[in-house]
Each structure stands twice: as structure tokens, then as C-alpha cells.
Amino acid sequence: MEGQRNVSEFILLGLSHDQNMQILCFVLFLFCYAALLVGNLLILVSIRCSPLFHQPMYYFLSHLSTLDICYTSSVTPKLIADLLVERKAISYGNCMFQVFAMHFFGTIEVLILTVMAFDRYAAICKPLHYLLIMNRTRCNLLVLAAWAGGAVHSFPQFCMVIRLPFCGPNEIDHYFCDIFPLLKVACTDTYITGVLMVANSGMVTLVTFVVLFFSYVIILFTLRNHSAEGRRKALSTCGSHITVIVLFFGPSIFAYLRPPTNFPEDKIFALFYTIIAPMFNPLIYTLRNSEMKNAMRKFWCQT
Hints:
The protein is built from eleven helices and three strands. It is mainly α. Strands 2-1-3 form a three-stranded mixed β-sheet. This is Olfactory receptor. Keywords: Cell membrane, G-protein coupled receptor, Membrane, Olfaction, Receptor, Sensory transduction, Transducer, Transmembrane, Transmembrane helix.
């Protein structure tokens, strides 16, 4: 690997070169990251310390909050720190770690969202068999499968990126190390590698989104036979899930399901799935969920 490159660090061009804009972004993203950490930790602790942890939906939600923290923390602290310095450098090793961590935790989060959709399908479409279908052993296996899926997706991508030769240009037109910007500065023909990356990341994103879309179509179709109160409660829960899916998958599909090239809009869309969507997840899942709000109120009032 050492013989294939003479680049020990990369220079991130960041979001903007305007000093005032960087200060504004620093304040904004520092607030967003703090809100993300507080919100997800609040959900995590409230679920773990209440009977809700034994319900499959909240068990998966606690894992989603953990992944939100891990996923965003692989990029956001570096982004915030870089907004205060003129030279935004990142070592080769840290750059490769960002590539791996983003795709590893991102894929697990996508698969956990899919598992949560399956949980809602079982609860609404198979209510009499729900506890049998979603027993704790099966829930653990589904979470384990999501982590295994993250590894299966991210390790091949990481191996392809780490084999790329970098022997000259080291400026990355982004605020973190991602696959397509790295392909642009590699000193070799990256067409085949780019196609393989699109086939991997793009198809994972598209197939998962299609599965989720049809799952919720079936769920909404089944709700026609429920009572008004049952429909209201189910729509409240599913509405939260659908909002998170749209916020996360919309920008992700634009970023990865396309020819392997860079667009000026990439940085803006990346903000949605690296900072904005994870920040809003706690609000989306608590404001529209009376059980979650009651559990948080009861636990923190007792504390």
C-alpha cells in the first residue's frame, strides 16, 4: 500500500471559503451536533431504563439512536473543528477511517430502519402473531444481521478505496472523505472502481428504499380495516418512520445512485444525511409518540 501512494494527508476544501460563512456554520453545526447528542442520549437512556426496552419497536429505536451518534460522530466533530482553521488537513489514515465508518454505520442504520418497518408490518398486519414473530431472540438476530450487513457492504468498498494510488493532487472538494471525491484525486483510471461503488452503495440504497416503500404501502392499505383509534395510533408511529426515511434516503439516493462524479450540490445533500436527519430523529420519534414522551417524563422526573 505504501508503494502505491506518496500522499500522507488530504486537504478538505470544506463548505465555503468565506470567513463569515464559516463562523456562522460553526455556530449552527455545533448547536446541531449538541442537540443530536443530547436528543439521542435522552432517548437511549429513557428506553434502556424503562419497560419500553422490552417492546421490539423501542428496542430497535434505542439501536437507531446509538447508530445516529456513531454515524454522525465519524464526520461532524472534524467538520466543526475545520471551520475554525484555514488549512483543513486530514491524514491518510483518518481519511480512510472516515470512508469506512460512514459506510459501515450508515448501512447498519439503513438496515435498522428496514427492520423497524418489518416490526410495524408485523404489529399492524399480523397483530395476533406479533409477539410470536417479534420475540426477543428474533429481534437480537435482526440487529445482528444489520451489523453483519454493514460489514458486508463496507469492507469491500474500503478495500477498493485503500488500494487506490494517490501520488499527486490531494485536495478533496468536500467537508469529509467520501468515495467519489477520492476517486477524483486518485492517479489511475477509476472508471471500473466507480461503477463497482455505484453498484454497491447505489443498489443497497435503492433496494432498501423500494422495500421500505412497499412495506409502508402494504401497512397503509391494511389500516383501512382498522378502527379510527387504531388508524390514528398506527399512522402516528408510521408517520414518524416515513419522515425519517424520506430525510435520510432522499439525499442518499442522489449521492450514490448516479454516475461516479462530483456535483456542487453534493455537500448540501450530504448535510442532510450526516447531520440534519440524525438531529431530527429524536424530535420525530418523541413529539409524535405519547408512549415515548410518557416514559421520558416518568424516568427523568423520578431521577
